[in-house]
Design brief:
The protein is of the alpha+beta class. 34% of the residues lie in helices and 39% in strands. A four-stranded mixed sheet has the order 1-3-4-2.
């Protein structure tokens, strides 16, 4: 599945726009990791646990978005964006969304 942040796919024509697709992941903090990250924050270091947690959330959101696109028969998702929001104390949602499209079949060279 092609996933692009652009509105067009270079060298390909869009045959049909299928609509918006999305995927999300909600993650919560871990108390014991929070203490460790708080100490690292005091030293000005990268917060490795949070970096890893957000990377995993992005990948899961992208996977769920592409599953949504496959379910409706898309070849690609264009205009992909990410959004985040707090949903509860210590928990955040990361959402990936874009437009599912079918592309005109590529002509072999």
């Amino acid at each position: 599945m092609l996933v692009a942040t652009t509105e067009l796919v270079a060298g390909r024509e869009i045959a049909e726009v299928l609509g918006m697709v999305k995927g999300s992941s909600i993650r919560s903090r871990n108390f014991f990791q929070d203490v460790s990250e708080w100490l690292r924050n005091l030293a000005g270091a990268e917060l490795n646990h949070y970096t890893k947690m957000m990377a995993e959330a992005r990948e899961q959101a992208l996977d769920r978005m592409t599953e949504d696109a496959r379910r409706i028969g898309a070849d690609a998702v264009i205009g992909v964006r990410f959004a985040t929001s707090g949903v509860a104390a210590g928990a955040a949602e990361l959402m990936a969304y874009g437009t599912a499209v079918r592309l005109v079949a590529a002509v072999p060279a």
